[in-house]
Amino acid sequence: MNRYPRDFRGHGPTPPDAKWPGGAKIAISLVLNYEEGGENNLLHGDAQSEAFLSDIAGAQPWPGMRHWNMESLYDYGARAGFWRLHRLFTERGLPVTIYGVTSALARNPEQVAAMKSAGWEIASHGLKWVDHRDMPEDAERAQIAESFRLHEEVVGAPPRGWYTGRCSMNTVRLTAETARLDWISDTYDDDLPYWLELGDRDQLVIPYTLEANDMRFATAPGYIEGEQFFTYLRDSFDTLYAEGLDGRAKMFSIGLHCRLIGRPGKIAGLKRFLDYAQEHDGVWFARRIDIARHWAATHPHRRIERPSQMTRERFVTRFGGIFEHSPWIAEGAWSLELGPAHDCATGLHNALTRIFRSAPRDQRLAVLRAHPDLAGKLAAAKRLTPESTAEQASAALDALTDDERTRFQRLNADYVATHGFPFIIAVRDNTKASILQAFETRIGNDSDTEFATACAQVERIAELRLKDILP
Fold this sequence. Notes:
Helices cover about 45% and strands about 10% of the residues. By secondary structure, it is of the alpha/beta class. Helix 13 (about 360-370) packs across helix 18 (about 445-465). The longest helix has 25 residues, at about 70-90.
C-alpha cells in the first residue's frame, strides 16, 4: 500500500472539550528539564564536550576534550539554578514535572530528594542528554531499557512519562512499545493530548513545546531578557485562555532549564508570568501525569476501522458503493497516497473525488447513468440501493401522490431525452418542492452545463454518504 504516515488532521476542526477539572479554562504544565550531569562529556564516556543550550554563543563540540566553561555553565544549573526554581515553585505551591535525564538524576541526589519532597513528577528524559538521531534502533532500545532500570533505582519508582528531546525517528515508537508509560511527549504537534495507535498499544501523547521554552535564551532568534520571555508567555496564555472562555479549553506547556531560567535576570520574567497567570480564575496548574490521568478518564481511546489501513478488498467492499454502482472509483482511491488525513469523511471524499474527476468523460458519464431516476420505476419496484432508498425517502419521494408521480416520470423522461443521463440532485439537501423546481429549471440548460452540474451533485451525494459512516 502507498501510505503516508504523518498525521495532519489530529483532532480535526472540532477538537474535544478538554473538560479540565473544576471547569478550568486552561491547563498549564510547568516542565523543568534536569540535564546537568547527563550531557555530553568525556567523563560520561562520550567522545566530545557538550555544545547545546548554554550561554556560550556559537558553542561547538570539542572532540576528545573536556570544555571547562561549558561544564561550569551546566554546573550552575545544579548548584544554583535548581534551588532558585525550587524555592519559587514550592513557595507558590505549584506542581512541576521534571524531565530527568536518568544519569543526571543519579549524580544529583539532593536535588532528587527535593523533587520528591515537593511532590513533583519525575519523568524520564532518557538515559543521557545526547543526540539520538543516528543511534541504531537496537542501541536506542537498550538505552531506554537501562533508563527505566536506573530511574527506578535512583528515584524509587519507574517513570510514568517520557521525553527524549534529541530524539530519532524511532523514539516515539520505541518508548510506546515499552507499554510502561502513561504519557510520552516527543511531539510538538497539538495544543491537546491525543492517542497514538502503535500496533496493539494505545499510547497517550501530551505534546510539548520548543517555543514557550527558555531554550530560546540560548538560540537565535531568541529571548535576550526576562521581559521578552514574560511577554511571549503572557500572549500565549491570553490566546489560550480566551479559547477556553469560548469552550475550547487547551493545554499550555512551558519548558524550563535550570542553567537557563535559573539565572537571576531570566527568572524575573518567569515570576512576572506566574503572577499574571495566578491572578486569573479557571487556571489549572498540573503535572503531566495529572493531565494524562484526566485525559484517559475523560477521553478514553476508541479505535475505529481506518480507511488508510484497510486491505484493498475491504476498502472496495466498504466504499465501492459511495459513487453509485462504480466500485472502480474506490479501487483507484485505494491506490493513492492515503494516510491519517483520509480516515475521516472529508479526507476520504477528497481521495474518491480525485479519481472521479480525473476519469475520462465517458467514465464519468457512466457514473451519472448508474444513478436511478428520482421516484422512477426502480423506486416503485423497490430495486434501489439502500443508500438511494434512504435518500429518496428523506424528501418524501417514496410517498408521492399519483399526480406527483406522473409529473416526476414526465420530467425524468424529458430530462434523459434532452441530456442523455438521469437528473441527479443531492436529495438530502432539498425538499420535494425544491427538487421539482430544480428539475424544471435545469432541464432547459445546455448539456455541458448539466454534465458539470450533475457531476458536482454526484460528489455531494458521495460526501453525505461518507459523513454517515466516518467521523
